[in-house]
Each structure stands twice: as C-alpha cells, then as structure tokens.
Design goal:
The chain is globular, with a radius of gyration of 17 Å. About 25% of the residues lie in helices and about 25% in strands. The two termini are about 30 Å apart. It has 6 helices and 9 strands, in the order H-E-H-E-H-E-H-E-H-E-H-E-E-E-E. The chain is α/β, with parallel strands linked by helices. It has a 9-stranded mixed sheet, sandwiched between helices. Strand 8 and strand 9 form a beta hairpin.
Length: about 240
C-alpha cells in the first residue's frame, strides 16, 4: 500500500511482504514538515531502499539530519537519491516525460510543493497528476509501478484541487500541528481498505525527526481542508 511512507514512519519491518504501491498525498499547512517527511521516505531503508527521485520547485537549503531509525545516518541512502528542481510547470512536465522514457523508472517518485505548480484550471491539475502516475510506470516489460508521493500545502490553491487529486491519489497522509508546540505534529495515514494509522512527529535541531505511534486517538478528522488537530496529544508516547 503506502509502503514507502510507512517505512519512513517505522511501521514496516525488513522482510515484510510488499503490497502494490498506492499513490499518496501528503497534506498539511505551511511548516508542518511535509518536505522532511518526503525526504525521510526517500532515505528510509538506508542503502537497501529503492532508487528515489525527489522533485521540487526550488533547491533544498540542506538535507535533513540523521534520525533514530529512518535511514538518514546511512551514507549509502544518499547514493540512491536523485534531486531535481524544475522551477515551472513546463519544466516539471519535461522532467516527468524524461522519467517516463527511462528503461526503468525510480522505485520511489516524490514531488514536493505540488501547490506551486498548480494554476486555476482543473484540467492542469488532472493532467499533472496523470503525468506523475505515468512517470512511475515502466515502458518495458510489465512490472509494478514505482511508489508516488506528492506533498500539497493546505489550504489548497483552489476548491477543485483536492477533489481532482483524490481521483489519482487514493491514500492521504494528513499532518496537523499540536497546539502550543511548533515542533510537534500528528500524522494520520488513510489508505483504501485499511483502518487509519496515526503517529506523533517531533522535529529537533538540524531536521532531526522522531516518530512515535499515536494509538487510540479520535477518528473524527474526516477528509476536509481544515487545519484543525486531533485531541489527546500528551507526552506519554515519547517515553
């Protein structure tokens, strides 16, 4: 399902059977750690993870620092990570066309800052989503497509954006800030056919990220564009 993101959050173990990849939208307000979570997904598994292509509209100021179990401390992880920065929608389209023409696509395709490529036309949103999924498919002999993760800042840039994107991205990871603590966030991953899963994230110096499960939280955050947060975010999960 959303194996790459689940590995990043520490819920997939080595040797676990892989399920067919499902495209995932990572949603959250400004400053909620969407970029850090995508990079953690790219580096998860250390040197044994899949080849990853990270696309963003502007260069990252730095890569995140190491973390407890996300693979960021393994220098081999960086060797399988490709970073590309197409600044415009046209440049992104050319990058995706080039990826689609590769003999073998990357195992993980990540797009950060989706909102910066979207205009006001619904057809452009749908076309970009279709291009992303097409780029993750192999043009050669049939094989499973690569995992696609794309981040979108909330609120979205138009009322049509989320309904259209959900046609192409059946899974969502929603990031919500913990009131009163700018370094902590709740993550809720919803995949088709599976109950929602939750984690608590805490960001430290140099991009360090700690993750803890958040079992038993309320399930009252149905799919909306609000930036509210769930209740029950004490410190007990951090030990």
């Amino acid at each position: 399902m959303a194996a790459a993101l689940e590995r990043a959050l520490g819920s997939v173990t080595a040797g676990e059977a892989a399920a067919p990849p499902v495209p995932v939208l990572v949603l959250g307000p400004a400053g909620s750690g969407r970029t850090a979570l995508l990079l953690r997904a790219a580096l998860a598994g250390g040197g044994d993870g899949p080849r990853a292509l990270f696309l963003a509209p502007s260069a990252l100021p730095r890569l995140p620092g190491g973390d407890d179990d996300g693979g960021g401390n393994d220098p081999r992880a960086l060797q399988r990570l490709e970073l590309r920065y197409p600044p415009t929608l046209g440049a992104l389209g050319r990058e995706l066309a080039a990826v689609a023409a590769r003999p073998r696509p990357p195992g993980l395709l990540l797009l950060d800052g989706l909102e910066r490529y979207l205009g006001g036309a619904p057809v452009a949103t749908a076309r970009l989503a279709a291009l992303l999924l097409e780029a993750a498919r192999s043009p050669g002999p049939p094989r499973p497509p690569g995992q696609v993760l794309a981040s979108l800042r909330l609120p979205p840039p138009g009322p049509h954006v989320l309904p259209l994107l959900r046609r192409y991205f059946p899974a969502e990871c929603r990031l919500r800030p913990v009131p009163g603590d700018p370094q902590r966030f709740c993550a809720r991953l919803a995949c088709p056919g599976a109950p929602p899963r939750r984690w608590r994230l805490r960001f430290g110096p140099h991009g360090r990220l700690r993750v803890a499960p958040a079992d038993g939280d309320s399930d009252g955050d149905e799919d909306t564009a609000s930036d509210g947060d769930e209740a029950g975010d004490g410190d007990e999960a951090w030990g």
